[in-house]
Design a protein that fits this description.
By secondary structure, the protein is an alpha+beta fold. Helix content is 31%, strand content 24%. The strands form three sheets. It has a three-stranded antiparallel sheet, covered by helices on one side. It has a two-stranded antiparallel sheet with strand order 4-5. Strand 6 and strand 7 form a beta hairpin. The longest helix has 25 residues. It is rod-shaped, with a radius of gyration of 23 Å. It binds zinc ion (ZN).
Amino acid sequence: MPRDLTCVYRALDVAEADIVAAWLDDQGITVHVKHRHAGSQVPLTVAPRGIEVCVIDPAQVESAEALVREHLQHRKEKTDENAAGRSIEAVCEECGKASRFPFEQRGTVQTCPHCRRYLDLPEA
Ligand SMILES: [Zn+2]
């Protein structure tokens, strides 16, 4: 095993580490994932700080770090998108039209955007 590995990413599990490693590999970065040999169920006692994705070639560390930042940013945007995309549908008893509301408003009383009457949003 090469010495002086530089860890550029700590994943919470092997699956995530593999995604980052494969992605970096696609960008031409040679990586080594620590603890991979332990299988998919790595106990936290083995990897208390997560699964480390390391760069073997010191010359590639900088670009790898930049790529990881990009990856994290992209993932965050995706998560935000998912959260924003979560909504519930409610059918107004007064006018019979369906409307979508933010998921956070489930189980509350809102106003029907079509007829402006009160509308009970379902729990889920
Ligand atoms: Zn209505």
